Amino acid sequence: MTAVNLGLPARPAGSNALGAPGASAPSTAGRPDVPGLVDRFGRVARDLRVSVTEKCSLRCTYCMPAEGLPSIPREQLLTAAEIGRLVGIGARDLGITEVRFTGGEPLMRADLAEIVGLSADAAPGVDLSITTNGIGLDHRIRSLVDAGLTRVNVSLDTVDRAHFASLTRRDRLPAVLAGIRAAHDAGLTPLKVNAVLMRETLAGAPDLLAWAIENDCRLRFIEQMPLDADHNWARDNMVPAAELLDVLGTRFTLIEKGRDDPSAPAEEWFVNGGPATVGIIASVTRSFCSACDRTRITAEGTVRSCLFGDQETDLRGLLRGGADDSEIARWWRGAMWNKQAGHGIDSATFAPPQRSMGAIGG
Fold first, then answer.
1. 280, 196 contact by CB (below 8 A)
2. CA 220, CA 284: separation in Å to the nearest integer?
3. How many CB atoms lie within 10 A of CB 242?
4. Residues in a beta bridge with 348
5. Does domain 37-360 have CATH number 3.20.20.70?
6. Contact between residue 183 and residue 152 where contact means Cβ atoms under 8 Å apart
7. How do beta strands 98-102 and 254-258 pair?
8. CB-based contacts of 119: which residues, under 8 Å, 6+ apart?
9. E strands, the chain, where?
């Protein structure tokens, strides 16, 4: 089995772990006295991503090794109650307005509806969504909606069954499509579909867009980032946004719409005059780091301020060590105050993070 590093919370000198009794909180020197999750570059995080598991029912080549990620011991995962508490702190004390549950695959958590329900109770009015591959969603959508789920993003890179099986190492396309239909039937529309741009599926991108328009889905293509567990990413093999636009342009007329929100990651184009649109998240070639408004919590309960920064701050130790909400909020603010400027992929010294996307949470 290939060794895969899930990554560990960074440990400051003189302490056992960030969040452990006696450890020092992240430095907030120079930070303005404001409640929100502001960083040194003036960005404010309002969008919270919470990974609930490292497990997944697929093995996408750009995310996971064929054998999957090493299992996180159950006692190291945040419980449903702990997740609900952190969501409540984020919404009430730190200005979080949107929460998305990710993985791995969040549907692999049997208690996902409980997580959503406790979060809805702790943060009334906050938008709660999941990013999922859709497998099994048709069996669980009703309980999730009843618990308070408001939106669904489905990851789907191709509607060609053979390509899907090759890319995900699983022949499960019909199950994904069943999940999408169930989300539509539950009223979670417009439903967003995320597709990672891969060289082997580029020719099928127009077919995917045509399918999305026909099935009332808002399609967003995502440039592949160096977050694969096998560390096979190479910029020369990556499909950039400009190349995708050329391919889509052979079949559709695209008119640039831009971004409705400056912090939104997707640039949008009207398709054949609209109202249908297609989005592109050009994380590599058109970086939006300067407007990033995200904060992340890993499945083990560490704050990760940036996908590409290995510095993590442990909140699980605080939760289980008796810290009150104000202390947890203080540590969280400190973690985000020290957020790096950007991913630095264009730097000669760039090194991919220790964790893959599946271990961090999308």
1. no
2. 15
3. 11
4. none
5. yes
6. yes
7. unpaired
8. 83, 84, 87, 88, 99, 126, 128, 148
9. 37-38, 44-45, 47-51, 98-102, 127-132, 151-155, 191-196, 217-222, 254-258, 267-271, 277-281, 294-297, 302-304, 312-314
pLDDT tens track, the chain, 362 positions = 333 444 444 433 333 344 445 567 899 999 999 999 999 999 999 999 999 999 999 998 888 788 877 888 999 999 999 999 999 999 999 999 999 999 999 999 999 999 999 999 999 999 999 999 999 999 999 999 999 999 999 999 999 999 999 999 999 999 999 999 999 999 998 899 999 988 888 999 999 999 999 999 999 998 887 655 556 656 667 788 899 999 999 999 999 987 777 667 889 999 999 899 999 988 777 777 788 899 999 999 999 988 777 788 999 999 999 999 999 999 999 999 999 887 666 665 666 566 655 566 66
* Per-residue CA distances from 59 to 125, 171, 189, 192, 228 (Å): 35, 11, 27, 21, 11
This prediction has a pTM of: 0.89
Question: Do the Cβ atoms of 154 and 191 come closer than 8 Å?
Answer: yes
The single-letter code of the amino acid at 87 is V
- The domain ranges of the chain are 37-360
Nearest to 63 by CA among 133, 180, 166, 168: 168
CA distance 330 to 35: 9
Distance CA 236, CA 300 (A): 34
In the three-class reduction of DSSP (H, G, I as helix; E, B as strand; rest coil), residue 94 is classed as: coil
What is the greatest pairwise CA distance in the chain?
61
Q: Is the distance from CB of 206 to CB of 247 less than 8 angstroms?
A: yes
**Which helix (H) or strand (E) covers residue 196, if one does?**
strand 191-196
Residues 176 and 154: beta-carbon distance below 8 Å: yes
Q: What residue has token string 């567990």?
A: 229
Contact 317, 300 (CB under 8 A): no
Q: Compute the distance between CA of residue 348 and CA of residue 362 in angstroms, rounded to an integer.
A: 25
